[in-house]
């Protein structure tokens, strides 16, 4: 089945004509989600913290419907069954396996992994449990609440001795300078919410010059049949429209290569929405 043509980024950023049928369709869709839809715990979490937040990612990963009354649970199951949510869960598994394989390559040598925009970092915890290796991890995120939830998870999993936490912005150069040299830098789910191409290109050079890791792991949203629905109806963590930027994975890999990273290993999720990329330095 051929793929639908995606609206370009500038189109997604622009408001629809006031009296267009499409504009009224999305307004009614938004009204439904922000009223009846709030009986779904997942939809409520998205509107409370942002559909680009670590909080909603964690909820989607858990994949257990909750809500008020029967209608809330029904809507929550429908939400969790959306193709974008399925892709999120698929790339979580891919990312876990890539991290696990990287740890196993070390043959017992100590490894230091830094996740610069971690959210709760379920995929890292899964990799640590399955390898039980000599690994230390630093989880950084701009959201202190999600880091506290991550700490609680580490306690439950008996991983407190392996993981430390820090509130910080992945793009803040000065805070990057305070991080000890890691073996692996993880940045998943970050580039799609950054609209400025030049910012990402510069960031790759900053990663190499400041942190100089052995490897980097990131993902790229390359296609999404729900991209316009997300942009017109959902809200991000700043309370603004949730406009994500699709990019060809080859373009982002090329930016990383110009900064000195090499040997890209690309894995696509089964829905063709995300590409997970591992590169070496």
List its salient traits:
single chain, 281 residues, alpha/beta, seven-stranded mixed β-sheet, 12 helices, 15% strand
Describe this structure in words.
It is a single chain. The protein is an alpha/beta fold. Helix content is 46%, strand content 15%. The chain has 12 helices and 7 strands. It has helices spanning 9-13, 21-33, 41-49, 54-62, 69-80, 83-105, 122-131, 144-156, 173-176, 197-211, 227-233, 249-258; strands at residues 111-115, 135-141, 163-167, 184-187, 215-221, 262-268, 274-280. A 7-stranded mixed β-sheet has the order 3-2-1-4-5-7-6, sandwiched between helices. Helix 6 packs parallel to helix 7 (122-131). It is globular, with a radius of gyration of 19 Å. The model has no long low-confidence stretch (mean pLDDT 93).
Spell out the blueprint of helices and strands:
Blueprint: H1 9-13, H2 21-33, H3 41-49, H4 54-62, H5 69-80, H6 83-105, E1 111-115, H7 122-131, E2 135-141, H8 144-156, E3 163-167, H9 173-176, E4 184-187, H10 197-211, E5 215-221, H11 227-233, H12 249-258, E6 262-268, E7 274-280
Parallel strand pairs: 1-2, 1-4, 2-3, 4-5
Antiparallel strand pairs: 5-7, 6-7
Helix pairs in contact: 3-4, 6-7, 10-12
Describe what is shown at a glance.
The chain has helices spanning 9-13, 21-33, 41-49, 54-62, 69-80, 83-105, 122-131, 144-156, 173-176, 197-211, 227-233, 249-258; strands spanning 111-115, 135-141, 163-167, 184-187, 215-221, 262-268, 274-280. With 281 residues, it is an alpha/beta fold. The model has no long low-confidence stretch (mean pLDDT 93).
